[in-house]
Write a structure and sequence with these properties.
Number of domains: 2
Structural class: alpha/beta
Radius of gyration: 21 Å
């Protein structure tokens, strides 16, 4: 595959920067959609901070505290640059524990106070539960107050993409909000969210769950007119326990989290700034090309094995397909072996995948599957090794 040959030297240099990968050559980590591994520079940044200047932010007037406060503000600016924020003076960046907390905060603190009886919101019913449950939660709370808000399901087409033609027919004068997903966490689709604004019109806020997109492919807010972007840092090579809500603050009131925030996750925020710097240096455009190439190698191989069913759009499986839009994630099932059992079999061969229901919302896949999720530290040899084990099982069944 041409792209894998073209980027091989670049990838080798980057792979060498991940100590857990280099230190376990007999293992293939294929679960980056659950959490990404960390380059040495991120680990070093956190250790240096903790060993030389650890302090709480916005609490003291001594140098360590002041430097920590400044670094948090610098991380906000770094995220704005990473997202190509077109109007950084007006936008807000709010640090949270992860995507779920961020989406719940938007639902509870920003959306709920604006909704009135008879309003409508459109949210995905077949994406991750974190981009489904918060919206149902707040409409349930409002219902108990005598306010009925109608939740309408985002429509999908046969390729498991958002159906913008049907979406256009759903939008009316009572539509107040649209929630969407950047990259689907099971099918690996780039959900083409750049098309949503033309359908939604100029006034309806759009909230984007970017948990599986950040760090995997470019996301430019100079061309994507979303109002919120939410993600988890640990999926973007930062530490667990930190994430961010970016708010455009131009449709409706400026976003402000409710309640007393408490102490920020300072070491997590430090790790996020360094991770974004690393990703920018590596180039998310090249990361996207590399992982799409690996994904195509895997799906091409799976198509030759009759025992396996690949989930999602069948027309986008081949590397030669004009519809190749899978961004680092491929989910599949064996027709005879339960997915959980298949996960254990692969783990015994040092192949670390996820095998379960993948936190699907209520209209998503109801049967467990094996999910392979790739990143820049993965190689063609690891994909071939996985295919070899899967082929052996195919011959047995």
């Amino acid at each position: 595959m041409a792209v894998l040959h073209e980027l091989s030297l670049w990838q080798e240099k980057l792979r060498a920067q991940f100590p857990i990968i280099v230190g376990n050559p007999d293992k293939a980590y294929l679960d980056s959609a659950a959490t990404a591994q960390k380059p040495q520079v991120v680990l070093d940044a956190v250790m240096t901070y903790l060993a030389t200047g650890n302090a709480n932010a916005a609490r003291g007037t001594y140098p360590w505290a002041n430097r920590t406060t400044a670094r948090i503000e610098q991380t906000r600016d770094r995220l704005r640059r990473f997202l190509a924020d077109p109007d950084p003076a007006r936008s807000g960046v709010h640090f949270v524990s992860g995507t779920t907390e961020g989406l719940r905060g938007i639902a509870r603190d920003w959306l709920a106070p604006q909704l009135r009886d008879g309003d409508e919101i459109i949210v995905p019913f077949a994406d991750h539960a974190a981009n489904h449950e918060p919206w149902l939660e707040v409409t349930g709370l409002l219902r108990r107050q005598g306010i009925t808000v109608h939740v309408r399901a985002m429509p999908y087409d046969a390729a498991f993409d958002y159906d913008t033609d049907r979406l256009a027919g759903m939008i009316n004068e009572r539509t107040r909000f649209i929630a969407a997903t950047h990259v689907h966490h099971v099918y690996g689709n780039d959900m083409n969210v750049q098309r949503l604004r033309a359908v939604a019109g100029p006034d309806i806020p759009i909230c984007l769950d970017a948990a599986q997109g950040i760090g995997h492919l470019p996301l430019s807010l100079s061309t994507l007119d979303a109002d919120f972007v939410v993600f988890s840092g640990h999926k973007a090579m930062a530490l667990p326990g930190v994430g961010a809500v970016w708010a455009r603050n131009q449709r409706g009131p400026a976003y402000a989290a409710g309640g007393w925030a408490g102490s920020p996750n300072t070491s997590g925020i430090i790790s996020l700034a360094t991770a974004l710097e690393w990703l920018d240096s590596a180039g998310t455009d090249r990361i996207a090309r590399w992982t799409a190439g690996l994904g195509a190698r895997l799906t091409d191989g799976l198509r030759t094995l009759p025992s396996y069913e690949v989930l999602g759009c069948q027309a986008s499986l081949s590397a030669a397909s004009a519809l190749q839009r899978r961004q680092s994630i491929i989910a599949f099932r064996h027709r005879s072996i339960a997915s959980n059992d298949l996960g254990f079999i692969l783990a015994a061969d040092g192949l670390m995948v996820r095998a379960d229901g993948h936190c699907q919302a209520k209209s998503g896949e109801t049967t467990a599957s094996v999910r392979v999720s790739l990143h820049v530290y993965n190689t063609a040899e690891e994909v071939d090794r996985l295919l070899s084990v899967l082929a052996g099982l195919d011959r047995q069944f």
